[in-house]
Amino acid sequence: MLQKPSNKHILILILALVLALTLVSACSQKETAEGKTIGYIAAGTEYYYLCQESGIRKAAEEAGIDLVVLNSEGQADKEIANMEDMISKKVDIILLMTTNAAAGQKALQLANEADIPVILVGINVEEGEGEALSLIDFDFKDMGRAAGAWVAENVDSGEVAIIEGLAGMNVAEPITEGFEEELAANPNLTIVAKQPADWSRQVAQDTATNLLQSYPNLKVIYGHNDDMSMGIVNAVEEAGLQDQIMIVSDNANAEGVAAIEAGQLVGSVAQSPAIDEGELAVKMAIDYLNGEEIDAHIREDLFLLTLDNIDKAKLWCYE
């Protein structure tokens, strides 16, 4: 004869059923990146930005997640329009490489108002009401410091010129400041000129040509990226001064690494926009969409790549 279940047994069964239903509900409500879309707003069409984009596209494709890409082409007003476009497309998270700190803050505020999280990639924005979910960047001063420290230690004395990126962008100034800080350790080195070349190889070549005429005793030229530095190489070689002038650079992309191996550059500060920024940004975005916590700030490591450590060169771009 079956024993009639007691009230205690019935209560236990009810509690077990409630617990099971709660667990099922929790699992069904778990955040997932499946079916979500990542938006990426690129700052421009220069090689650096294209390489950052190459990492983002590769990571998104491998993860099987939808990706929308817009390019601001170096224009602050277009960055704002691109953010508005992303909002209208109802993307789930936005990766933003801003054109400048002020425009980035305005774009961030728009995303906040639309309740769309933003991961800043490469460059921070100015302080304001807009808040980012996370920031992936490196200290631009550290980039300049890495180059300046090598020059201060390895060049006994002489005149130094700096060919900078785009004037007014919150990138060129801190790079130069960091370089100057480290160069000050050697009082026998003097910076005689600082000229912008707008991240352009041809402009850098023309600028270097003029500097070589104005300062025939130059010992070092520091270029803010490898593309400009290859223009500097052209100017120095055309003047027949490659035995007099050392060229230090930033980025250590494939062309820069080859130039180091060929003796055209003495070194270039190494980084990888494709891996350290692009791929990482997508991974963080997917983690967030899957309901995981992500770091609020990730800072990239920088070092000067020379012939002595050429084996540490990073993959810079997915072609």
Secondary-structure topology with pairs:
Layout: H1 7-28, E1 37-42, H2 47-63, E2 66-71, H3 76-88, E3 93-96, H4 101-113, E4 118-122, E5 134-137, H5 140-154, E6 158-164, H6 172-183, E7 189-196, H7 201-214, E8 218-223, H8 226-238, E9 246-251, H9 254-261, E10 267-270, H10 273-289, E11 297-299, E12 303-305
Parallel strand pairs: 1-2, 1-3, 3-4, 4-5, 5-11, 6-7, 6-8, 8-9, 9-10
Antiparallel strand pairs: 10-12
Helix pairs in contact: 2-10, 3-4, 5-6, 7-8
Detailed description of the structure:
It is a single chain. This protein is an alpha/beta fold and 319 residues long. The chain folds into two domains: 131 residues, 3-Layer(aba) Sandwich (Rossmann fold), CATH 3.40.50.2300; 131 residues, Rossmann fold. It has ten helices and twelve strands. The chain has a six-stranded parallel sheet with strand order 2-1-3-4-5-11, with helices on both faces. It has a six-stranded mixed sheet with strand order 7-6-8-9-10-12, sandwiched between helices. The chain is elongated, with a radius of gyration of 26 Å.
